[in-house]
Amino acid sequence: MATPGSTSHQLLQMGTKIVAVGRNYAAHAKEMGTAVPTEPVLFLKPTSSYLENGGTIEIPHSLESLHPEVELAIVIGRKARDVPEAAAMDYVGGYAVALDMTAREIQASAKAAGLPWTLSKGQDTFTPISSVLPTSMVPDPDNLELWLKVDGETRQKGSTKDTIFKIPFLISHKSSMMTLLEGDVILTGTPPGVGPVKVGQKITAGITGLLDVHFNVEKRRRPESC
Fold first, then answer.
1. pTM, 2 dp
2. Does the structure show a pLDDT above 60 at 226?
3. Side-chain half-sphere exposure of 1, counting CA atoms within 13 A
4. DSSP 138
5. 7 three-class SS
């Protein structure tokens, strides 16, 4: 397995936002009972939701479970605005594996009310992420196997070759609407197999042959009253 250096951590620290793509695998859209999109479904997550490898994912007080979604993360290497698709890969600084932790009950309520997904996706510890792999270690990002296990049992296994919208298009599309800065992250969607995790369970995930990550799941502690 790869052991990326400290410079990769610094790159993530420089980022200002996480731009995520929903339903970028047709099989995941189907399992969620939603239509396959004809253009990217985008939402933002704060960088304060990052959690380093080995950390503890916190389930909010009012919930009993969260749904982890394993994703390939694209780390932007330099400022990108109105990038043509043909040049988009020149703006990639590296790759990582990330989990898009989702409070499914909150998300379902928000969808039903036509409200944003922020509370279901952006809370503290809701974006566990690996160190960043340099582009030289990932010659074909459109043919990577992503996997996720809970307590050693495989929940998700899929290939980035099955994404609907490919990396060059995503970078070009997003940079036409908002400037992507060095260290910003694009989450490229999750393959099928999502399901709940509860307190006490352990999550492992990775990119086959390149890296893996592991996280515990616990209940968020209530703040002590003054």
1. 0.94
2. no
3. 11
4. -
5. helix
